[in-house]
Structures are given as C-alpha cells and as structure tokens.
Amino acid sequence: MHILFALIFFGHGFAHLPGFLAYWKLADFKEMPYKTTVLAGKFDVGDVGIRVFGFLWLIAALAFLASSISVGLRLSWWQSAALVTSTFSLVLCIIGLPDTRFGLFVNIVLIAFLLLNRQMGWLL
After folding, report:
1. Checking CA distances to 47, which of 18, 40, 85, 112 falls within 20 to 30 Å?
2. 8 Å CB contact between 89 and 16
3. Domain limits, the chain
C-alpha cells in the first residue's frame, strides 16, 4: 500500500511540472497556456510574478518527489511531509484556477485521506 501512495505522490508531483515549464516559457501546453494572470484572470502579476508562481510549481513538484520517497521508505515523517506538500499544492491550484481544477480535486482527496489516515492509522 505504501508503494501505491508513493506512486500517487510521484505522479502528482510530475503533474506540477507543466506549471513550471509553461510559466517559464520552456514549453507550450494547450491546457496551461502562458499567461501573467492568476485567480481566474483577476490579478495580473506580470512576467516576473508569473515566473515566481512557476518556480513555486517546481518547488511543489520537488516536494511531492520527497514525499513520494518518504512514503516508499516508510520514514517516520512521511505523513507530515505529504500533508504539507498537498496543502501547498492546494493553494497553488486555487491561485491557478480554472486551469488547475483537476489538481484541486486531487489535493482535496489526498488531504482528506491523510487526515483520516492520522486518525485511523491505515498506513503507519
């Protein structure tokens, strides 16, 4: 079961890379085009601001990689790392709406599972 969750966290981290690549103009994605606005186009953060936002997507991808490794190795801090990472990702997805609505849903499910897991002890 730990391996399954390690793969889920790895996959979710991989899904954050387009945010970095698109906002740094390193790749073009139909689903996530380059733009300088956030919060459904309400705020224009400019080129520098969107690069900072893109860098945060890279940080989230790396954090999910670390979470994935910690889950797979069953390190004592895996639940805390995964919860913090999923919450950070949730905030990024809220800022990136509507392009990030699927990621928003995935983060809500992950956070709910992690909170329930702390109470139920399914994966220790």
Report:
1. 85
2. yes
3. 2-119
